[in-house]
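Subject: sequence -> structure tokens, single chain

Hey, anyone have a minute? Need the predicted structure for the following. Not urgent.
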Amino acid sequence: MSSDAAITLGVLVAVFALLASDRLPPSGVLLGGLVALIVTDVIDPQTGVSGFSNPAPLTVAALYVVAAGARRTGLLAGLTGRVLGGDGGRASLIRLCSPVAGLSAVFNNTPLVAMLLPEVSSWARAKRLPVSRFLMPLSFAAILGGVITLIGTSTNLVVSGVLEQQGYRPFGLFELTPIGLPAALGGLVVLIFVAQRLLPDRSDPTEQALESLRDFALHLEVASKGPLVGQTVTEAGLRHLSGVFLADIVRDDRHIGPVGPQEVLEAGDLLIFVGDVTDVLDLRARSGLIVPKDQAAVLESAREPLYFEAVVGRESPLVAHTLKEVGGRDGYRAAVVAIHRAGEAVGGKLGDIDLRAGDTLVLLAGRDLRESRRAQEDFLVISPLAHTVPVISRGARWVALALAVFVVCASLTLTSTLEAALLAAAIVVGARVVTYSEAKRSIDLDVVLMIASSLGIGSAVDSSGLARDIASLLTDSLGFAGTFGVIAGILLTTTILTEIVTNNAAAAVVVPIAIRAADQMDMDYRVMAVGVAVMASASFLTPIGYQTNAMIYGPGGYKFFDFLRVGGPINITFLLVTTAMVSLLG
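Reply:
Had a minute. Here:
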């Protein structure tokens, strides 16, 4: 192994360790790794920064603008009501997963899930069905559909960018379809007919004691001159509440819990209620209970204050910080009313709780919260608890036209994929569906930075000779299992890395190795690259391996093990089908 290859391997180990720790934003970790490779002269600066001019991150940025137009115009409004039906059984699951997978093939899956999540949640609640039976299938179906075409997910564009960076022809729009479509269909069959039986149903009364409802902890104060002062908990009517119980009382920084029925309430007591989010919020209407000062300030200052559910993302600056540490966020004003984590309410003082990726916060804020750039950086998805179906505006026709132009131009190779995406974004902005400022805010710069940095690191893996060395090691050690065994080993490595780090980083690192391995086995390198792209998106085992899983983790009330139980059969099927198709076509 050369010195450059050894340095690259060391940087990769450090990058993967930091990504797995979740202590730093992935975009910052990948950029830091790229800088380390440039400073140590493994790659020259021009090669290192070439990812920033690569079509892949620019295409993703343009597609974010188109997605913003679809979200703003309500293009997908009412989809759930018309498609899902009312029985909530397997038929509803089929009617949900099939169109979502189809839409995800031509519409980037992350913004698609962000738009459909509140729609599906509201439909399930209106039908009195457990949300947990639909949000995980929503995310998984979007992931499955994303592997069918080049534009379904940013990971496909990363692999295409690596090919182009190494002097190969980039992917065509439907080049992934011969492998991605069978894999997606196999995954959908398992999701609907096998994994459907494994989905949690936390609204069943017999399971509530074991797996709890999506409980939230809400803090309310006893008004100093209110009717509850001097009353016991029982006299105040705070025992045997429907769907809610009084879990703790904080008095002069002293916790009183469990709370007994004869505990006398005092002025200024902070009461911590735990229960279903809807029932918890109803407590605000009780006489003698007032919201804490931070919520009162929002009620006074915000126009049309609403309650929102907001999911903390893996790259959020809030991760590993307490609410007290982050204080008031510039750019928006919101009060945290409750926190929910992995199927359980979070007790104690909200201000002292370290936030984690996947936490769901109930926020009290103005109606314009979702338009705030800072709020978009802090949270993966923000949806109002009081749901209203958006009205489809006239601008939706422009968005539909933009999508049609994009698909036609890219599929018929009238233009490059980047040019088609830029044209679609130009239509959305030119028709004033979104303003220039809104278009800028809609672009997730962290994702763009991650892709560009990943491409630079991928260049180092190849040019340093590390890709050749690892490919030789794999082909030699797995040679006894034949070509199928080597392919399976590479694809299994890809999906494991995706769960541990990020899908884009996994793809950028493994593609050069896969290309070298294909050369050594006299296979078609493009087929092998497609296989890596497909498996890099196969994140079904953890809630933080893929953005759409993180989005539904809190709102669905899931626990970590739910993803292993439901996603395991899908991941195995996905790996077997993809390996078989790569072997057949390669």
